[in-house]
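Q: Give me the 3D complex with glutamine.
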Amino acid sequence: MKAALGGCGLARVDAEVLLAHVVGRNRAWLIAHADDPLPEPLDAEFAGLVARRRKGEPVAYLTGRREFHGLAIAVDPAVLIPRPETETLVEFALARLPADRATRVLDLGTGSGAVALALAHARPLAQVLATDRSRAAIDVARLNAGRLGLANVDFAYGDWYAALRARRHAMRRAKARAGSAVTAPRTFDVIVSNPPYVAELDPHLAQGDLRFEPRRALAAGVDGLDALRAIVAGAPAHLVPGGWLVVEHGYDQARAVRALFSAAGLGDFTAARDLAGIARVAAGRHRTQGTATPA
Ligand code: GLN
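A: Here is the predicted complex, encoded as structure tokens.
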């Protein structure tokens, strides 16, 4: 194994993660068995993954998984790879989500489901609804929920808040058929989102892992704020009074996002930095006793 790792030309950590994946063990096991030979078929499989990695494919797509907030999340090229900075988003949302009572949470643009599942896992009494406009992403998120045994997450297909309307119509039809009393919620205690927020022409999109990730999960208009504008503007109509909107944004968008929150009438604005010290997460709450009926 030592020889395979040493001679492959990848960064040590990438090589170890790929080899551990191929042998079906963790990295600690690899280190303990460094002197064992790598059996022939596994050697070829490892070489194949190394070649793809050398062409730039993200390690998480090669292994099909990424650890996020302590959960093993399955990923494929239909979804963004969960980032460490997004754990800051989860922490910020959890700080606004009581653990001792039933709550309703909406995750807009769930992708792999990482954020929704981390919240559902940490708040067993919460009922989490996760949306996406990509059916392939919803499939991945659903698979993850099943594998993690999280029954308090549900999924809806569609653009931002339009997914809620589509789901209500579907549930109304199902209810009429089955005589069931299940209804889809109209308002939530916390709305959370890690939307696309990179500017369309940002050169980062042509670099590193981003080249292999779904463009629609990364880029949002000329200034990268198209998705955030829609999410923030629609939040008051979908939050309970006192409910929080918590979003992730780009490294240079803190001021613009604050202005969007203020324009939407969200108060108690709070910002958080990610582990790299970059302002990355914003939260604001719906203060007014709302009479608005969500569309
Ligand atoms: N933080 C990611 C990046 O720039 C972008 C993720 C997103 O658009 N939500 O790599």
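A quick observation: The first strand starts at residue 65 and ends at 68.
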